[in-house]
Amino acid sequence: MTTQTVRRRRRSPTAIAAQAGIYVILIGIAILVLIPMFWVYATAFKNRIEIAATPLAWPKEPTLQNFVDAWVKGRLGKYFLNSVIVTIPIVAFTVSFASLAGYAFARHTFAGRNAIFYLFLVGLILPFQSIMIPLYYTLLNFGLLGTYWAMIVPSTALGLPFGIFIMRAFFQGLPYELSDAARVDGCNEFGVFWRVVLPLAKPGMITLSIFVFLNAWNSFLLPLLYLQREALRPLVVGLMFFQSRYTTDYALTMAGATIVSLPVLILYAIFQRQFIQGLTAGALKG
Amino acid sequence: MTTSSVTSAPGAGRSSTVQTGFRKWLRTNIPSYLFILPALLLYAVFVLYPFVNTIYYSLTDWDGAQPVKNFIGLANFARLIQDPLMWLSLKHNLIWIAVGTLTPVVVGLVVATLVSGGGVRGRVVFRTIYFMPVVLAGVVVGMVWSWIYHPLFGPINTVLKAVGLGGLARGWLGDLNLALYALLLAAFWAYWGFCFVILLAALQNVDMELHDAAKIDGANPFQRFMNVTVPQLRPVLTMLTAYTLIGGFNVFDIVYIMTKGGPANATEVLATYTYHMAFKQNQVAYGATLTLVITVLSMLASYTFITLRERGNVGEV
Question: What stretches of chain A show up as alpha helix (H) in DSSP?
Answer without folding.
Answer: 13-44, 48-53, 65-72, 76-107, 113-124, 129-141, 149-172, 177-184, 189-191, 198-200, 202-218, 221-226, 235-245, 250-270, 272-284
